[in-house]
Amino acid sequence: MLNGSEKPKVYVSATPKAHAEPFKDVRIREGSVVSVVIGADWNHYYANMTRYFPIGQMSERAKNAMDAMEEAYAISVEKTRPGVRFAQVEREIQKLYSSRGLGEYYITGYTHGVGLLIEEDPITTIVVPHRAMEAKENMVLAMVHAPLMIPEGAVKKEDTFILGRKLENVTKY
């Protein structure tokens, strides 16, 4: 906000739900995973960033999910290039989660556009035909929007990238 964001969006998820805004009756417990999504605008354009925070001692499933999320993030950054179909990268992420026994917790769709809205086309997380689209140079994408909704909470890590010959992370943290 000090740098000019006029309409920031902040979502805190302390439950295993895809888009769980803060609820007054949710209590964060030991062993939970809390995800925080920040969408900040600048000159009417948004950037999107999400981080997960383990609270206390984690279960083996939660540790596995957090490790898998870091691998999925690396896969999306490595494989998303102009000309690559989003479904190709999606299959790699699905394969990773399945191999780790986490397939049942995965919400399909690993990326979405970011721009005038915090979430816009292509929206592979919601619009199934967008998964068949090719990534194109100059797209602005939030990746890896591939959450694992484990009972301990939502495990999600996301940054905003500008797709060029190389990916430029504009939300480094």
TrEMBL record:
<dbReference type="InterPro" id="IPR036005">
    <property type="entry name" value="Creatinase/aminopeptidase-like"/>
</dbReference>
<keyword id="KW-0031">Aminopeptidase</keyword>
<keyword id="KW-0378">Hydrolase</keyword>
<dbReference type="InterPro" id="IPR000994">
    <property type="entry name" value="Pept_M24"/>
</dbReference>
<dbReference type="GO" id="GO:0004177">
    <property type="term" value="F:aminopeptidase activity"/>
</dbReference>
<protein>
    <submittedName>
        <fullName>Aminopeptidase P family protein</fullName>
    </submittedName>
</protein>
<dbReference type="InterPro" id="IPR050659">
    <property type="entry name" value="Peptidase_M24B"/>
</dbReference>
<keyword id="KW-0645">Protease</keyword>
<feature type="domain" description="Peptidase M24">
    <location>
        <begin position="18"/>
        <end position="162"/>
    </location>
</feature>
<dbReference type="Pfam" id="PF00557">
    <property type="entry name" value="Peptidase_M24"/>
</dbReference>
